[in-house]
Amino acid sequence: MMPRTLRSVIEARSILTNDGIALEAELATPVDFPLRAAVVLCHPHPQYGGTMRSIVISALFAGLPRAGVACLRFNFRGVEASAGTHDAGRAEQLDVRAAVDTLGVEFPDSPLLLTGWSFGADMALVTIDDRIDAWFAIAPPLRFASDFSAVANDARPKLLALAEHDEFRPPESVLAEVASWDATHAEIVPGASHFFVGRTDQVVTETERGIDRIVG
User: Fold this and answer.
1) pLDDT of 44 over the 90 cut
2) Which domains are seen in the chain, by residue range?
3) Which residues pair with 186 in a beta bridge?
4) How many Å apart are CA 62 and CA 206, to the nearest integer?
């Protein structure tokens, strides 16, 4: 496990997408500990109550900076203070790219990891960028995008954290679909539902372990 520091600094940000949409965002940066990596956090489905403050995203946003990892969370277009309207996972891919751009500029010398939960995991798994060092997908339904092949066939690491009792897609079904993906490792979180209530600490731990494997 990574050693933990006590503090992080949280700043409100606005991210501008390539199609001119301003997105609400927050950046948490570690204090009193060397920066080890930077992570983009993508939230669950906007039409089912998902925001950047959803339970798993909030747990990662709070926990990872204490382990030396900067976190950028943002609201997809049409959510809370973000401009625009929901686009069924199409224009939302521009939102993810804008977040990657922001962290790439903010921390150009740090490993950059793209993480998402549920709908956000699917959006992460269709985002290709040379600056991304790894993908972390938490309970990805693998149904909110039509083609995951670019990431699936990429040699960079992919870590999946799957819920043992996922209500939306059983882990066995996800494992079968990703069996042919390159550089892909999956862990099943025991006792967890898709929402990881009471299991968010395990998600944070699995993410930290993945970061350890990537950045050493």
Assistant:
1) yes
2) 7-215 (3.40.50.1820)
3) 160
4) 15
Per-residue pLDDT at 1:
44
DSSP 97: H
- Contact (Cβ atoms closer than 8 angstroms) between residue 27 and residue 13: yes
The pTM score is: 0.95
Give the 3-state secondary structure of residue 102.
helix
Long-range contacts of 60-64 (CB under 8 A, 24+ apart): 60/115, 60/203, 60/204, 60/207, 61/26, 61/28, 62/28, 63/201, 63/204, 63/208, 64/28, 64/39, 64/204, 64/207, 64/208, 64/211
Is a pLDDT exceeding 60 seen at residue 152?
yes
Radius of gyration of the chain (CA): 16
Residue 145 contacts by C-beta under 8 Å, 6 or more apart in sequence?
89, 93, 122, 123, 125, 126
Distance CA 201, CA 86 (A): 30
Place of tokens 């679909």: 177
